[in-house]
Amino acid sequence: MKNIISADYIRGFADGEGCFSGYALSMSNTELLLLEQIKQALTQWDIKSQIGPHGQKPQYTPIFRLQITGYPNLKSYQENIGFGHPKKRQLLAEYIAKMEKPGALHNREEANQAMILRQLGYSYRDIAKHLGILKGTIAQRFRRGIWPLEKI
Known about the structure:
By secondary structure, the protein is α+β, with helices and mostly antiparallel strands. The protein has 7 helices and 4 strands. The protein has a 4-stranded antiparallel sheet. A hairpin with a 3-residue loop joins β1 (18-20) and β2. α3 crosses α4 (86-99), α5 packs antiparallel against α6 and α6 crosses α7.
């Protein structure tokens, strides 16, 4: 089945039905099929998303939420789709800039260094010391697999 949902459509939909909360981009609607089509369209830009219920009461029509989280997914959204709404565009840009700062562990150079050190058998503590980043942050990123990089 050919996907007919375009980047322009997603941008407009997110401007009207979406929000950026500081770490996640969410779009809510009562039409589950529409959100599933948007989710499918996002895959052409390698954007992973999840769909789930969105705080609804039994007496009302169910509301569903499509959510995009994680630096690689949000960066791809920013580059390929973006927001037309100025405030939403600004919030997403600020998040991306924050994640690209040294020490964010979404900084590709630091992430690559951390991955190489880990493969060489360095402990989280040693990697943290070498990169000047909190040990807990490094351990958490490794455990969750949050890495915007290719296999080395």
